[in-house]
Hints:
Blueprint: E1 4-10, H1 15-18, H2 32-45, E2 50-55, H3 59-71, E3 80-82, H4 99-109, H5 116-122, H6 125-135, H7 144-164, E4 168-174, H8 176-186, E5 201-207, E6 210-218, H9 220-233
Helix pairs in contact: 2-3, 2-9, 4-6, 7-8
Amino acid sequence: MAKTELYIIRHGKTMFNTVQRVQGWCDTPLTKRGREDIHYLGLGLRDIDFADAVSSDSGRAIETMRIVLGEHVNGPKIPYSIDNRIREWCFGSLEGGYDAEMWGVIPRVLDFKGDNETFMTHTTFKEIANAVYEADTANWAETYDQLRERVYSGFEDIAHRMEKKGGGKVVIVSHGLTISFLLNLIDASQPVRANLLNGSVTHLVYEDGKFSIIEVGSIDYLEKGKKLSQDLLE
């Protein structure tokens, strides 16, 4: 049986990413630069033998996956499905506001003493999730337990389905905080991250019901695609 491998991409850069606004369940399209970078990423991934493709149901994830598959040598032949369980966290009434405002509200809800940089190294995903839930005046945000069940079951089902078929490689497009949260669920020593780059790739292996982390937030495939593109122009 072949190993089951997940190549999890953070979607390309969007309008809200560019102006640093909170973007969870709300959605904006990729910018011109965002699309260009994902085209490079697709070139860098084009020769990997993907047996399946899955994205979240957010428009920015779907747009990213279509570009990636459009550059792949077997793109039209790779089965592609959408799973809403691997979408980004919902930030409720905080959606659409500036990132700095949200990351200012959460420490206050937790009565955290210290600056934002210290906050990111001394808090947990559980604390953040429950603070968002408490701060959300619209009552849309999920509790930590709901998030944990949604995110982990989404990725595990994708991996388990591939494993039952004999293993293989799956390309997935998801979201920054969701990917970071998954890593922490797999390995509790993984830090709270808010810095996974758009177009980066996180590589996991799934065997006998367990995930292992191979690589986090790599931009090597994007850089490889840039070089290939430059070589073609020369």
